[in-house]
Design brief:
globular, 456 residues, mainly alpha, two-stranded antiparallel sheet, 69% helix, Na+/H+ antiporter like fold
């Protein structure tokens, strides 16, 4: 049998295994302290020990374009799902709305830059990386992952018209920890890009003031504005068509066709990239804008269900391939220093920087939007800075733009951090969130419930 047909058969087999596990694992593992990503990564590692065709074991250098685009698509689908899942509105015209996102802003504007700086310094000091490579390491490992954090994120859009927790007529989140981790993961994938571009500028010896000025004006500010604006515009247009079009066949919210959400992913990302904005941010902004239209309509749940299933499948494929790559030599360039650095990033850098960020800001609890995380909630939020598929995309993208020194070390370190994070956070997510729920004060019982419990 020709070799290319054998390799194609292995691809079909890999896809079949991923799809089967995507269907079975979430329900099978719902009551145990073990996540589906952890199992898939382990299955991939074991599969990599088998005599697989060389083409199945992906190489970061030879297969970089495929790795980049697979990770890119996975993150895009996940960002759309995250944006649709968030019930807390964000309105530019409402100061109260911005205050309700205060926890998110502190994680993005304080914890993330501190994390990038700390990781870059450790990469230079511990691993001896060149400044550009150290900065790239910090940038790719700074954002938390919207793909792998499902166990600690909000479950999905709430569409119950009688929901008890509503603010200004809009459904709001009840769980501040889940909201913080979800909203942070939705936004920081795009906000890591300016620092990836800065690393590319540095490695290209572009240290002139005009390059730095361009980075500040365009990469750090301009592309964010363009990406957000394009995403909101696409989301508004699609929402108007889906919910309020005069043509019934165009009102997909009425016909119940959920595949509009995939068109939203591609349209918002493509339009933002053509306009030279950040496509990741555009997809999240598009999702948030779609969600802002008629929040009680069940169409949001239908769309979220589509992207959730596609995200699950893509995630498991990526993790399976990552596990195979780990067995196939991805970690060969990992030194003990790299392992120590990776563990420190997960257990020290993220928790400390996030905890410090969450400690900053107003403490009063009697105004809507102020920080209302209890100390134990701050520690849980700070701990679950899950690293994952977004880091794979950023590293693949950057190394495709310019040759960074120490690429093997970068890939080995990033691969180790992702694997360590998947296992550690996958095992601890269910117990931690269960413990947090038990520690929260229970709502007071209604009079009727008290009388019923007391008996006649």
């Amino acid at each position: 049998m020709p070799t290319d047909l054998i390799n194609a058969d292995f691809v079909y087999l890999l896809a079949g295994i991923s799809l089967l596990l995507a269907v079975v694992l979430p329900h099978a593992l719902s009551s145990v302290a073990l996540s589906a990503p952890t199992v898939l990564l382990g299955v991939g590692v074991l599969a990599g020990l088998l005599p697989l065709p060389a083409e199945v074991v992906l190489s970061p250098t030879e297969d970089r374009p495929f790795i980049e685009h697979l990770a890119e698509l996975t993150v895009l689908v996940s960002l759309m799902g995250v944006g649709l899942a968030l019930d807390r509105p964000l309105s530019f015209r409402s100061r109260a709305s911005w205050r309700r996102w205060g926890t998110t802003w502190r994680l993005l504007l304080i914890a993330m830059p501190l994390s990038i700086a700390a990781a870059a310094w450790l990469g230079w000091w511990v691993l001896g990386l060149a400044p550009a490579s150290a900065l790239l390491l910090g940038a790719v490992l700074a954002p938390t992952d919207p793909v792998l954090a499902s166990d600690v994120q909000v479950a999905g859009p709430t569409t119950d018209e009688e929901d008890d927790d509503q603010v200004d007529g809009a459904v709001d989140e009840r769980d501040e920890v889940r909201f913080a981790l979800t909203s942070e993961a939705g936004l920081n994938d795009a906000l890591a890009f300016p620092f990836v571009y800065l690393a590319i500028i540095v490695v290209g010896a572009g240290s002139a003031l005009d390059d730095v000025g361009k980075w500040l004006a365009w990469d750090l500010v301009g592309k964010i504005v363009v990406g957000a604006a394009v995403g909101m515009l696409i989301g508004w247009a699609l929402a108007k068509a889906a919910f309020r079009s005069r043509v019934r066949s165009v009102r997909t919210a009425e016909t119940g066709e959920p595949l509009l959400v995939l068109a939203a992913v591609l349209l918002s990302y493509g339009a933002a990239e053509v306009a030279q904005g950040y496509g990741f941010l555009a997809v999240f902004a598009c999702a948030m804008t779609l969600r802002s239209f008629d929040r009680t309509d069940s169409y949001h749940a239908l769309m979220h269900g589509v992207v959730e299933r596609l995200e699950r499948l893509l995630t498991l494929v990526v993790l399976l391939l990552l596990g195979v790559a780990i067995s196939g030599g991805l970690l060969d360039a990992l030194s003990w220093r790299g392992a120590v650095l990776g563990i420190a990033l997960v257990l020290l850098v993220r928790p400390v920087t996030a905890w410090l960020a969450l400690r900053i800001g107003p403490r009063p609890r009697d105004r809507v939007g102020d920080d209302h995380l209890q100390p134990r909630e701050r520690w849980v939020t700070a701990f679950f800075g899950i690293r994952g598929i977004g880091s794979i995309y950023y590293l693949a993208y950057a190394t495709g733009q310019d040759p960074f020194s120490g690429q093997d070390t970068l890939w080995a370190t990033v691969g180790f951090v992702i694997a360590f994070s998947v296992v550690l956070h996958g095992i601890s997510a269910t117990p931690a969130m269960t413990w947090l729920e038990r520690q929260r004060p229970q709502p007071a019982a209604e009079d009727g419930d008290v009388q019923e419990a007391a008996g006649p």
